[in-house]
Structures are given as structure tokens and as C-alpha cells.
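The pair is quoted verbatim below.
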Amino acid sequence: MATDIVAQLADSLAKAGVEDGELSYKGQGRKLDDALSVEEIVKEIQDFEGLQALRLEGNTVGVAAAQAIAKALETKSEFKRCYWSDMFTGRLRSEIPPALNSLGDALMLAGAKLTVLDLSDNAFGPDGVKGIESLLKSTACYTLQELRLNNCGMGIGGGKILAAALTQCHKKSSAEGAPLSLKVFVAGRNRLENDGATALAQAFQLMGSLEEVHMPQNGINHPGVTALATAMQHNPNLRILNLNDNTFTEKGAIAMAQALKHLRSIQVINFGDCLVRPAGAIAIAKTVSEGLPILKELNLSFGEITEEAALAVAQAVKDKDQLEKLDLNGNCLGEDGCKALKDTLEGINMAELLGSLSDDEGEPEDDDEDDDEDEEEDDEEEEEVDDEEVEEEEEEEEEEENSGNKLSTPVSAPRPPDVSSFLSFPSPDKLLKLGAKRAMLIEQQVDVTDAAKTAEAFLKIASVYKEENNDIKHAVLDSIDALLKKAFSTPSFQGYSFVSSLLVLLGLLKSEDKVKPVLVVPGHLQALEHVVRQDYFPKENVAVLEAFMSR
């Protein structure tokens, strides 16, 4: 029965996952080398009246194949959405720019008006940015709302090219009376560093339309953070700001705290693993207490925050009636500080919002206090080192430009992530780097008494599933098993609510709370097929799925 249910569910998900006007080859693992290999795709594109979106994620596309697809797109004037992440795996670095140029030229020739451009997980470096430079400057991108370039290895050079292209697009579109109003910008794991971030900050400030900014793991420290803080002040509709795993220090954190005062629409702040330190945390707490009325999530984990600063943060959120999660894990509270924090939140009836404190570093050594006094001196040394690193990186990028035989491979993360970082911005690499205890760590982090949060965590873990990679496959399934075993064995856990939340998040059931469905990926189906076969998954919940799917 479970297999039949999953088959029905897969059918519904397939239908729900394809939007109107969309042609999808997502996750099919096709090796598209030449025109012959894409004959079927080309014909379907040509025959598709009113084509608005093309999904090529999870395939590998060569230059000749891209040119053939591009030719078919030249007449698609209604085209709007490019879902082209992870489509150059195993390709030579030199193949990617001409492939992107062909596709971009076709969209410009068609007179397309793009709203979504997703090229994440292609690791194409600065050359890849050059491959989309003309497209980004063209009329096809005057209407762009979402730009997703996560894990592309752009580097400082690529960040500067991207910033210049966005600036040019804004100026040209403004001259025609319809300025570029980008809403979502995603560029995690790109080695942007200070110079790349600063260049992009200038473009962000010019646009002033951003609602979501995700730039984790980019090696940005306080000069770049300060530039971004200034830019964010000019984007009053910003709802989500994720700068996880960059190095703020006090200077950057204080600058960001000032910027947050201008952002009354902010709902999610992720400054985890950003070394905000006590002074930075206190500055952020002051801003939170004085404003941010619809704040839902605040992540200040792994920031060397001490007990006093953590308690200031706890007091700051006491009137935030929409808050859903507070993450202060991995700081320097000590046993007494952790207890004081929990007691404080208990006193304002918000203890259930606090994430795990299992990775607390303990009270700081006395010597740590001297670090603050020496920070200015350290910053000067850091900037000197940064200059050297920039020169080195520019040399590396020049070598990459002159070498056409490098494979497109993902850039490794500079530091291993924590659980909250993984759940905020899931990736296979992050999951594996949580180590052998990942299942236990995830189980501790997720509040399994909350069915909706458990369903959300389940889908985030499942999203990184890869059938062809045994390490990732087992890591995903082990983590899911641990999470759901704990959930279904908890007396207060409501299994029916879990299934309901799952269906809402998958877009198969409408919610009165206007919950935004996730982007459905094959891993969700694989994980569902796995869990309904397990002994811990109650048969009555399987029956609910069956009843829903057979309606």
C-alpha cells in the first residue's frame, strides 16, 4: 500500500511542481553533448505555445547542445523563467561561457522579459559571469525579480562584473521609465570577500528593491559587511537577510545593527557564525527591542557572545509576538549562562523558541577580553593580508581565464557548518560536514513537539538527497529516520498535523495561513518513499496520505 501511495503522491507532486507555461527536464541526469542529443527537447520547445519557463537543472549541457536549445528559444517572446542550476557538471570550464552566451543571445533575440534567472551550483567562476554579462545588461533583464547564483565560485572578479552589469541594467531600465526592481538575490559560497561584496552593495543601494538577500560563506569581514549594511538601509522592503558564516566582528555587527533600524519589514536575520561578539550582539539586541515588529527568526549562533549579551538579546525579543526561532547556540555562555538564558526566556513565555545550546563553548578565558582591545590593531593587519589575498586571487582568476581545460567543480566551504546553518541553507556538503553525529545533532536542533517545524526540517534534509551518491543518500536517510523516530515517539507529537503540514509545504493542500510551498525536488519523493516503509511511520498517517491522494 505504501508504494501505491508514493506513486500517487509522486504523480500529484509532478503536476504541482510544474507551473503554467513550464517545460521541465529537471533532475533527469541527461548528458546533452550535441544537437542530436537534444532533438527531443528542441522539438518540445518549438511545439510549446506560450512557453514561459524551462527547467534544465540536474542535466549536463555542452556547447553544441546549448546552441541547439538556444535556437529553439529565439521565437519564445513570452519566456520569463530560467531554471538552469547544476547543468554543467563535468564540463570543461571553457565550455560554459559560450553555452551561456548562446542561451542569453537567444533570449534577447526573442524579446523575452525575464523574472527568474537561476544558475546556482554551476561553479563557473568569473568566466561564467562574463557569459551572462550581456544578458544582464539587456532589456530581457529589465524585469528580473530573482537572481540566484549560489555556489558559482564567482570570486572577487566575478562579483565586480556582476555588480557592474546590474548597475548598468538599472540605469538603462530607469531611463525607459521602468527601473530594475530585483527582489531576491542569492550568492552564497562565492568567495566574494570585501571587494566583491562592496561592489555588489553599491548596486543594491542603487536598486533599493530587495526583499531577500542570501550571501553566506563569502569570506566577507567588517569593511564588506559595513558596505552591505549601508546598502540594506536603502532597501526598506527587505524581509530576509542571510549573511551566515562571514566575519562581522564588533565593527560590522554594530554597523548592521544601525542598518536594521531602517528595516521594519525584516522577518529573518541570520548572522550565525559571524563572530558578532558581545558588543555587536548588544547593539543588535537594542535595535530588536526598539523595532522590527514582525521578526520571526534571529540567528546569532557561534558568535563568541557572552552571558550578558545573550541575556540582552533574550530581553529584546520579549515583545516580538511573531518570533518563531531564536538561535544562540555555540556561544560562550557557560553552564550558568545557559541556565540563566533559559530561565529568562521561560519568564517571558518564550522558552520553546530557543534552539539547542548543546554546542556552547563555555565561559570565555580571561585572555579573550584582551582580544577586544587589540581588535583595531588586528583589523589593520587583516586589511594588509586581505590586499595580499586579493592580489593572489586575481592571479588565480587570470590563470583560470587562460586555462580552458579545468572542470566545473563546486568550491569547498571554508569552514564546516553548524546544524542551524544547514537547516537555514541546506546543501549536501554541509550535511556531510556535520560528521558522524549529524543525525543526533539534527534531532537535538529541531523542536519535534511542533509538527509544522518538523515537516519543514524533513523537507530541508530531503532536498539534498542524491540517489547516485551513497554518502549523501545515507546521510539524508539516517538524519530523517532519527528525526521522525523521535517525533513519532514523542507523546505530544501530532502525526496528522505533520502530514497536513507536509502536504501544505509541498503545494498539495491550501493553507489558511498562506504558507509558501517549497520548490519540490526529487529528493522529497525519495525520502517520502523511504519513510512510509518504516516501522516508526504510523499506518494511520499512511492512511491519511492515501485518503488525500485518492480524493
About this structure: The first helix runs from residue 2 to 17.
